Amino acid sequence: MKPFITLMSIATFILVAAHAVAADSSILTLEEAITAAVKQDPWLKGSEYSEEAIMANSVAASSLPDPVMSIGLANLPTDGFAFDQEPMTQLKAGVSQMFSRGDSLDIRRKQLQELAKQHPIMRQDRIAKTTLTVSMKWLEIFRAQQTIALIEQDRALFEQLGEIAQASYSSAVGKVRQQDIVRAQLELTRLEDRLTKLHSQKEQATAELLEWLLDDQTWFTNTQRYQQHVDLPAKAPTIPRLYLNATKELENGNIHILAELLNNHPAVLAIEQKIEASNTGIDLAKQQYKPQWGVNASYAYREDDQLGRSRPDFISVGVTFDVPLFTGNKQDQEVSAAISQTEAIKTEKRLALRSLLSQLQSAYAAHRRLQQREALYQTDILIQMSDQAEASLTAYTNDDGDFAEVVRARIADLNARIDALNIDVDLLKSQSQLNYFFSDEPSIANTRFGEK
User: Fold this and answer.
1) Once rounded to an integer, what is the mean pLDDT over residues 199-218?
2) What are the coiled-coil residue ranges (predicted)?
3) Does CATH number 1.20.1600.10 belong to domain 4-451?
């Protein structure tokens, strides 16, 4: 598996986000936005810290508890508090060491290491989700920018139509009426309203994108300024298709093969890693049936008696262990809880797989319909709309048409081109969605982005 985590190891970092949007004339490509978002994502760094913490705990968990030292004075007589008065008086120093039940230390270490292995997989899924999220927000900005360009391009034509109508009306040439002049001005006003709305959408989408691109300090100090300067390329990006190997299965709706493919998705693999750690937890719970052992040793010093005769010192050695006899309310229940926890996580995996499969089928169905609409617009609708607009204008200039019809045809042509743009953008968005489901494939950052 070649996961999205390879984004983190790109030899030459294309553009840090703050630099990408700092200049007034900067052009932020989709590739640069994704790379910067991954670089700036604090979640990835937090995941690395969590993994390091779990690994450190696994080392600590595999260590025996510290030995316990004890020092005491035993049997000191209270009538004189003399250390050499009674032969039972002793100064004792001891040490004791407890051992784990069975192989519980090694099993606990293994369980923590398995939990730590979940984090690299979770980071793969996070990068895949970040790629999808940033792509969606970038494409929304691109949609607004290109729609603005289309309207700006046609606004000059509507202004020219209005000037022609005004001149014809003033000279009483042709069939121009005052309502035609009003209609031309109305359409220009409506175009201005659409432009205002689109600028607002672009600014909102830019603010949402900058959340992923800027570090904390830049975000709080310069977000508003950067919103005015982020600009995107004029041509749509070419997004590599990571699902090509599954196209046949997607077309045929082969659920079983698609489910097998989705089993390699980071979101599913992360849950699978949790299942492995939970299975190890069952083995750990079973160790509670074994006794816990401990050893202790002590040395007792005795003073010579009051007549100067030597008294021998004492050495004591012992072994302690518990006997798990009544397991019904403790050990049995702990094992049962561990088994139930494992089954619950397995259910979580099945639900995640079903959800991914459903989302994949839905995204692919939408993608196919968008492809059909794109073909229809390119082969028929755009051509017909353009021909209709030209025909109505030709008829009007020959005094054989209505000015309102010219305006309607031009508006319809503009709307058709905007609809075609929306379809193209939606196709790129649906392609990004499909890529997410196959994020175990080579990452987008390792494939050259092009222009459409």
Assistant:
1) 83
2) 181-208, 404-431
3) yes
